[in-house]
Design a protein that fits this description.
Layout: H1 3-23, E1 37-38, H2 44-48, H3 55-67, H4 73-79, H5 85-93, E2 96-97
Parallel strand pairs: 1-2
Length: about 110
């Protein structure tokens, strides 16, 4: 059996398996999919675990949140030094939300 035939059979089997799973109403978790994590409820450890967030930034987030919860992304960016547009976009891609909302270009 040639490599081409093996690849084709593997592709067909994969497509058939996916169709079967979808027909059964069971969706497999996507690889690398970020689990939502709200900035207003996340623990210090959860915030520190995000790529791009250090101990100092995580502490500033917790400190500002203790004063009052963040209303939206612009509110969080105004109140937390170091949380700019670029980092907000990166954190949102990792699953961080503010009141369930992901960061978007309109929120800059």
């Amino acid at each position: 059996m040639t490599r081409r035939v093996v690849r084709r059979r593997a592709a067909l089997l994969g497509a058939w398996s996916l169709a079967w799973v979808l027909a059964a109403g069971v969706a497999p978790p996507l690889a690398g999919a970020a689990q939502p994590l709200d900035i207003n409820t996340a623990s210090l450890a959860q915030i520190e675990a995000l790529s791009g967030v250090g101990t100092a930034l995580a502490a500033r987030v917790i400190e500002e949140r203790a004063k009052r919860p963040f209303a939206d992304w612009p509110d969080a960016q105004r109140r937390v030094k170091g949380l700019g547009s670029k980092l907000a976009a990166q954190l949102s891609e990792q699953g961080l939300t503010v009141n369930g909302a992901a960061y978007g270009p309109a929120q800059r």
